[in-house]
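Customer escalation, tier 2.

The customer says the design service returned an amino acid string that "doesn't look like it belongs to this structure." They asked us to rerun it and document both sides in this ticket. The original structure tokens are below, unchanged.
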């Protein structure tokens, strides 16, 4: 990876801004972290190239030869199901002149570049090089696809560009036990929606991480939630928001009989919204320093039954309504952060523990990055 100049990084990451204070005394991240394009360059190296990223759920690529593409820190990645039903990933970059791959038509185990047709096997090795016979000093062994580390957990597929990442199990420890008897691996993929939002990716994450805004931004939702019992818990690399639905609400927005829902945030940009029989994942991808793309994937333990009961349809409607309200406030906040009069704010100890925890992890990533410059 091309590193940005170390003097620039040291100027951008001031020691004072990276100090971690208890929430009672902490300030929010400086506004420049949300509005200056140089910080995204640092984040790509310090965060997105280092951490595990959610690629998909196994049920999104159920058959041999199925694939899905993601972009991590400006790197295109292709995730594939092999003939042996393994899931493998590669940088989706052909070693000829950088073209993208897809599965070769009529096969399930050959990748073909979509530019000049070079072919690669599922271990990444280069196989077919059409019309290349007079080329000298060319050894196919030197032109294989670069693999990307891939791990599965509870039916979810994670990838990382880091060749020496922290174990995925330490990142997600305790989640399976906490949500039991719900099993994420039982979920079946239903549909994907996505929004391009005019705010820095951290504005969207900060907003997700607190229920403080619910009474103002989501007044309808507020009447349905048991706001007094809204709880935020933090672990090393994730936080959990848990809100029982109000007992006097005859009809909660999700028709969940026992009223339990878990909203997990896994650092740096993964959200798992879990209810009995249902999973919705959100991936927040930076699309420039002042834009992000948020991808929503919907899953059900029994997809056909959920569709027959109208649950899939109503989930989409409820989710789109809440998302619209969140998009409007996040885009307005981006303008405020860009203004001349705002730099840093403070946290509600009662309501913004998740935001503080996320920003602490961002600071820790930056400090670790500075140490290895
Ligand atoms: S760029 Fe892939 S075959 Fe030319
Ligand atoms: Fe919201």
């Amino acid at each position: 990876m091309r590193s940005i100049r170390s003097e620039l990084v040291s100027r951008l990451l001031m020691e004072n801004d990276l100090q971690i204070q208890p929430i009672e005394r902490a300030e929010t991240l400086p506004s420049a972290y949300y509005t200056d394009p140089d910080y995204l360059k640092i984040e790509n190296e310090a965060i997105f190239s280092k951490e595990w990223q959610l690629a998909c759920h196994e049920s999104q690529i159920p058959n041999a030869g199925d694939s899905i593409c993601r972009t991590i820190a400006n790197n295109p990645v292709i995730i594939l199901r092999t003939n042996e039903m393994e899931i493998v990933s590669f940088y989706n970059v052909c070693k000829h002149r950088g073209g993208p791959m897809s599965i070769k038509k009529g096969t399930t185990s050959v990748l073909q570049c979509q530019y000049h047709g070079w072919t690669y096997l599922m271990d990444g090795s280069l196989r077919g090089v059409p019309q290349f016979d007079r080329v000298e000093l060319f050894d196919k062994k030197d032109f294989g696809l670069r693999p990307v580390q891939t791990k599965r957990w509870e039916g979810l597929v994670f990838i990382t560009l880091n060749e020496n990442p922290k174990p995925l199990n330490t990142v997600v420890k305790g989640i399976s036990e906490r949500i039991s008897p719900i099993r994420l691996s039982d979920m079946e993929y239903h549909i994907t929606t996505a929004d391009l939002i005019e705010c820095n990716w951290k504005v969207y994450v900060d907003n997700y991480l607190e229920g403080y805004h619910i009474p103002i931004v989501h007044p309808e939702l507020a009447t349905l939630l048991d706001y007094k019992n809204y709880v935020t818990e933090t672990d090393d690399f994730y936080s959990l928001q848990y809100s029982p639905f109000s007992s006097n609400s005859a009809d909660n927005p999700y028709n969940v009989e026992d009223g339990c829902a878990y909203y997990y945030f896994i650092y740096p940009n993964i959200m798992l919204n879990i209810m009995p029989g249902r999973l919705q994942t959100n991936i927040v991808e930076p699309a420039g320093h002042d834009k992000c793309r948020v991808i929503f994937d919907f899953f059900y333990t029994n997809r056909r039954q959920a569709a027959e009961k109208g649950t899939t349809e109503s989930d989409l409607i409820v989710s789109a309504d809440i998302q619209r309200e969140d998009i409007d406030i996040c885009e307005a906040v981006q303008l405020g952060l860009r203004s001349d009069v705002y730099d840093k704010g403070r946290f509600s100890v009662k309501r913004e523990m998740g935001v503080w925890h996320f920003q602490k992890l961002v600071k820790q990533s930056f400090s670790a990055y500075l140490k290895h410059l």
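Tier 2 assessment: The sequence is consistent with the input. Residues 52 and 167 are 9 Å apart (CA to CA). The longest strand covers residues 188-197. Sent an explanation to the customer and offered a walkthrough call.
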